[in-house]
Automatic annotation (TrEMBL):
Gene3D superfamilies: Ureohydrolase domain. InterPro entries: Ureohydrolase, Ureohydrolase_dom_sf. This is Agmatinase. Pfam families: Arginase. It comes from marine sediment metagenome. GO terms for molecular function: metal ion binding.
Length: 123
């Protein structure tokens, strides 16, 4: 698709919404992995909406990092589509997350997981 065709569409939701040339997977050093999961939450559901809410709110972040004194997005930030949790159970979902994160790390990516609930980081 050409740029003229895409003018009427919202850009893909990418964490911090950096300029498009800094969001390509191949050149990005940082990869954001959203995981909308809350199947083991025992009190109230809804944490599965956390990754989307965090990404949406990130558009208001300042791209300049005062502590590092640099434009951190210049290393490239790519946001993957939401990882589909397994309905077979939490073990299968954690295994899926582990596999995807491991593959990304093998590709030299710094992985930032945005999850719904705490069980996503267990392994």
């Amino acid at each position: 698709m050409n740029a003229e065709f895409l003018e009427g569409f919202y850009p893909p939701r990418n964490f911090a919404f950096p300029p498009p040339q800094y969001t390509d997977f191949e050149i990005s050093k940082v990869v954001v992995l959203p995981i909308p999961y809350d199947s083991t939450t025992d009190w109230r559901s809804g944490s599965r909406d956390g990754p989307k809410a965090i990404i949406d709110a990130s558009q208001y972040l300042e791209l300049y990092d005062h502590e590092l004194d640099r434009e951190s997005y210049l290393v490239g930030i790519h946001t993957l589509p939401e990882l589909q949790p397994s309905m077979k159970g939490p073990e299968e979902t954690v295994a899926r997350v582990y596999k995807v994160a491991s593959d990304l790390i093998q590709k030299g990516k710094f992985v930032v997981m945005l999850g719904g609930e705490h069980s996503l980081t267990v392994r």
